[in-house]
Amino acid sequence: MMIGILSDTHDNLKAIERLASELNEADVEVVLHAGDYVAPFTLPVLAKVECDEFIGVFGNNDGERDYLREKAEEVGFELVGEIFTGEVLGLRVAMIHGTEEAVVEALARCGEYDLVVYGHTHEPEERVVGDTLVVNPGEVCGYVTGRRTAALLDPDEKKVEFVEF
Predict the structure, then answer these.
(1) Which residues form the Calcineurin-like phosphoesterase domain (predicted)?
(2) Taking burial as the number of CB atoms within 10 A of a residue's CB, which of 8, 20, 124, 153 is the most buried?
(3) 10 Å Cβ neighbour count for 30?
(4) Rounded to two decimals, what is the model's pTM?
């Protein structure tokens, strides 16, 4: 079992295509997307990831939210709004885009979650706060850092691997 963690796709269809191949090769069961798809036309390309469940939140650059939700439904994805909290493959998860660093820290420190996922900074990060694993997968698009990154998480081991594609 693997969880694919991604953020900040920002309409880069070529990068999304490469990412889909990478995630399919890793045999991910669930994809968590921390926002900034930007345009709805990215979702059918993301749908090339062969996973059982895709859960996403909105980012600060996601303007066409109603149409994003509509396209997400068409391809079988769930876009839940600004924040997701729930269980994913046995982990208690909180996910937000991360525009407010204080909110990310509060979620990490509250002790209610095994995993906190965020994006926005475009920089990959993995750290532990108490018993909570905090993961920022970096950016799929590669526009800010010049690196296209995502994260793979083994939920049983709580082990993160960053992939560059």
Answers:
(1) 1-157
(2) 8
(3) 20
(4) 0.98
